[in-house]
Amino acid sequence: MAKVVIFMEGGIAQSVLADDEDVEVIILDGDIDGIEDENPRLKKFEDDTYYVAEGVDLVDQEYVNEVFRVLGSNHEHPC
After folding, report:
1. What is the Cα–Cα distance from 16 to 27, expressed in whole angstroms?
2. Which residues pair with 50 in a beta bridge?
3. How far apart are CA 24 and CA 34, in angstroms?
């Protein structure tokens, strides 16, 4: 199973990493304030409008596996 890591800051996806090229990713961002109505990335889905981003920025199996090893659900989080 492919693993995906999405880096976000201020509620915005900054980058998408995966451990395998054989993965499809779609990000639906419902915070569309300030985006012009003519923007081709604005799409309607189930009566809502989203800014749609697709794909992976980087495939790096070693880095993604390290993120999952350190921060994944099988790890006790200190927060």
Report:
1. 10
2. 43
3. 27
Is 54 inside a domain boundary?
A: yes
pLDDT digits over 16-27, tens only? 999 999 999 999
Q: Determine, yes or no, domain membership for 47.
A: yes
Count of structural domains within the chain: 1
Q: Does this model's pTM top 0.85?
A: no
Query: Which pair of tokens denotes residue 40?
Result: 């081709």
| pLDDT at 53 exceeding the cut of 90 | yes
| Nearest C-alpha neighbor of 55 from the set 12, 9, 21 | 21
CA 68 to chain centre: 15
Question: Which region holds residue 44: left if phi is over 0, alpha if psi is between -120 and 50, else beta?
Answer: beta
